[in-house]
Amino acid sequence: MAALSARLTWDLTKRDFSERFAGSILGAVWAFIWPLVNLFIYIVIFGQFMGGRLPGSSDVYAYSIYLSVGLIPWTCFAASISRSATVFLDKKPIISKVDVSLPSLLVFINLSETITFIITSAFLFAFLIATDYAFSLKLLLFPFIFYLQQILAFGLGLLSATLTVFLRDLKEVVGIILQLWFWFTPIVYVTNILPDKVKSVLVFSPTFIITESYHRIFVFNDYPVVSSLVILTAIAHFILFASYALFRALEKDVRDFL
Amino acid sequence: MIQALFLIVWTALFVMIAYISWKEIVKHWKVYLMMAYNWLYLTGIFFFYPKFH
Fold this sequence. Notes:
The complex is a heterodimer of chains A (258) and B (53). Chain A is mainly alpha-helical and 258 residues long. With 53 residues, chain B is an all-alpha fold. Chain B has one domain. Helices cover 75% and strands 0% of the residues of chain B.
């Protein structure tokens, strides 16, 4: 069963990519064009044409980098959760025919979104090299913070996927929560512009800690706040643990409902 | 340099232990065990990495 699930997960990931661009002349090339266009919008439109500047920095590209290192991981995080919310319903034909491990269906979504993230990040790094960006060893933490982010996305995705089977309205609620969550995370704006009261609440948001960590290592050449990251690691794993325990308790009902 | 070495050794240790204890996903408690390993792995990185600079 395990091997089957691993193989199925990989097949689903490949199919997810091929289906997305099925019938188009350029095919998989679109998987590279989309991230490139998105990065162009973040860097050229927002950073240059709209004249976005980072307070306290004279670097003309500082805001473009600030925006990109917040938006690229967020896009992956939000897409992983929103697509996971309906995965059991979307893959109903497979679930009813094959004895597949249901959480492995979420793995394919996370893998697929991670591949898109890696492609976009590769373009971002090419941009950084082209603009003589000063790379430091702090950037080695980038994949690990992203890994933590995706663990959180997996835990929340599994919770949403399990509950959406019983309550279909949840997929809309997930979309609204993600939209609000985006604007309550300092991705397009800097934290300093927020009122103190809002700031004192937002520091407890997981995405606030994650985004701030990206900003610190990429823009401010500093280490993330260790205590925040360690606490967030514990919280993300607790959410994953609780979601999996809930899923195990409801698995039979989930399969019956489907 | 020592920072990069720490990441490589810590990751190799995690992969080795995880592979040995999770060759086949047959028992569900192994999933919880993997979560605990993973938690220790990431906590170790975030806690120790800045100390090596």
